[in-house]
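Memo to structure team: turn this sequence into C-alpha cells by end of day. - J.P.
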Amino acid sequence: MRLIISEKANAARKIAQFLAEGPVKEGKHRSVPYHTFTWRGEECVSVGLKGHVLNPEYPEEYSNWQKVDPRELIDARILKSVSEKGVAAAVRSLAKKADRVIIATDFDREGELIGVEALSLAFEANPALMDHVERARFSALTKGEVTQAFENLVEVSRELADAGEARQDIDLIWGATLTRWVSRAVKRYGSAFLSVGRVQSPTLVLIAERELERRAFVPEPYWEVEAKLQDGGEPFVARHARGRFKEEAEARRALENLSEIAVVTEVRQREATRPAPTPFNTTAFLTAAANIGISPSRAARIAEDLYTEGYISYPRTDNTVYPESLDLREVLGFLTEVEGVGDYAGGLLRAQRLSPTRGRRQTTDHPPIYPTGRASRGELRDDQWKIYQLVVRRFLATLSGPARTLRTTLRFESGGEPLVAGGTVVTEEGWLAVYHYGRRRDEELPRLSEGDEVRVVATELLAKETQPPGRYGQGRLIRLMEDLGLGTKATRPGIIQNLYDRGYIHGDPIVPTETGMAVAKALKDFASEIASHEMTARLERSMDAISEGRVSKDSVVEESRELLRRVYDHLENSEEKFADIVWNGIRGDETLGPCPNCGRNLVVRRNRRNRKRFAGCEGYPECRTTFPLPQKGDIIPLGTACEACGLPEIKVLGGRRPWVTCINMDCPKKQEQRRAREETQVGGEETSEEQRDRKRLEKSTT
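Reply from structure team:
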C-alpha cells in the first residue's frame, strides 16, 4: 500500500479524487480523515496533515521565565514535540500498513520540512519505509498538475528541509532568548510580555525610523493660487504656473492681478502608453491585496485556502514569467464562465496569438500566481471572492494590450499672470478594461485653441504646508522587506501581523505605538545587531546556501548562536538603561490626557478585584476622578480632546475595524453617535463587533 501524505486534509481529498481509477473510500482514524483508492493497480491511502506536526521547543526545565537565565537558552538543547497528536497518531497507524510513502506537501522550504517531519513519524512506526520514499511536486491542485507530478516522482530534498529547520531553530533561539531577556528587564510577564524577533525587530525599527523622520520634520508654509475657469460647460481648475509661493504677500498680489478673462497661450497634448502589468509573484500579490483593503496576513491565508480548493496556483512564488508549459487558452476557457470577466476572457480567447507580459524574475520552482479553476460568487466568502477576482483579473491583464492615454496641458494668461491646467483621459483601455484597481477618473478639459478666451469664475488663495514623509502601508512595507532581505515571501505577512498583535503598531498606513518606538530605540542603542536588517539578511543568505547544499544546517545555527552571544553581552551591560527607555514608552501609551479636575494625567488603570480597566487620575488618592474604558481591544491615546466635552479621545483597536471615542459616557457627541448607530441597526440587533464593544463600554464600571 502507498501512503500519500499531504499538507492539509482538503489537499489529501483532492489528490485522491484526481488519481483514483475507481471509487474513493472514505475512512477516519479517530477524527482524522483519510481516503483509500486504487492508482496504477495499487492500493493507496491519502491523508492530510494540519501543517507542522512537530514544533521546536525547549525542555521543560527551561519553562520558568523568571528563574531561568535567558542566556542558557542560547545553547540549550532543542526538542521536537508533536503539536498535532491526532494527526501524528493517524500517520503512524497508516504507516504500519504501508510499503511505500509519497510526500505531497507544498513545494517550498516549509512544505519540504513538514513532509520530512511526517516521514519521521512514519519511520517510527515502520522503519522499512526509509528506503521507499518519493516526492510529488506540483504548483496547482488540478487534475493535470497532480497527475503529472505523480507520474514524475522525485526524491525528497533534505537540503531544502534543513534550510526550513535552520530557520525554525534560529528563530526560536533568538526569539526566546531576547524576548525573555527584555520581558525580565522590564518586568512584563504573562500576556503583557514584550516580544523580540530576528526579523520582527528590524522591521519594527524601519517603522520607528520613519516615524522619527516625521516627528523631526519641520513643515514650511507655502501658498498656491487657484482659479476656476469656464468655457460654457462645467468649470475646470487652473493653478498659477509658478506653483508654490513661499511668501503670502507675493501669492496675494498674483491673486489680485487675475482678471475676469483668461486667454489660452498654449495647447500641448502628449500621448502615453501604459504597458500591462506583469504576472503576480507573492510580493506583488500581497501588495495589490493590501491596496484593496485586505491585509497581507489575511490575503496570504485566503490565497492558501483558494489554492487547496483548486481555484488558484501555489501562492508563494518569486516567479514573474509564465512557463511555456502553462496552457493559457485552457485557463481562458474556464474563465469565460466566471462572473464579471467572462466576456473579456472570451475576447482574448478569440485572439490568434497570446503574448503574456514578463517580469524580471524567472524561477523554475513555481509559476506566477494564476487562476486554476472556475469559481462563482456563491461558492466563496466575500473576501475569498475579492482575492479570486484579483488573481483572475491580473491574469487577464497580463494577456491584454497596453492602455493608451492622452495628456492635455493648457496654458493661460490672465491679468499678466500665467495659469496652467492639465487633464488625462484614457483613449484606449487595453488592460485597464479588466484590471480596474486604482484606476483614476478621466480628467477632461474643454477643447480650446491658442487665442481662445474663457471666463475666470472664481479665484482662491490656498494656504498649505510641506508634508513629512509618508508612513508605510502594509503593501509598501512588504516590498521594502523584500528589497532588504527581511524574512521570506511566506513569513513576511505573519511578521507584520505579530507587530500588530503585540501592540507595537496600529493602523494602515502603519503608526507605531510609544511602546513600539521605545523597544525599537532600546534595541538600536544596546543591541544594534538585532535592530539591523543587514544581520538578518545575511542569515537569510546562509539559509539559501543550506538549501543549495553548500553549507550545513548545524554550521549556520552555530554561527547564529555565536552572534547572539555577543548581542546578549551588550544587553546585559545595559539592562537598567534599556528598561528605562521601554518603560517611558509604555507609560506614554498608558497616558490618555489631562484630568478635567486637577490637570494631572489620566492613565489606564486596572481594578484590583475584577481586573477591569478604567481611566484614573495619577493624582490618586488626592484626586479620585475615574472614567470607564472599553474592556476589549488595545487603547491608543490620540493626544486630542473631544470637541463636544473636552475630554481625551482614544482609538480602540478590536472588532472589525478601529473606532475613535472620548472617555466620557455622557458626552453629547457620543450620545448622538449612539442614536445614529441605533437607526442603522437591522432587526434590533447590533450590526458589528464594534457596536457590541460600545455596548459593553456603556455597562462597564470601575
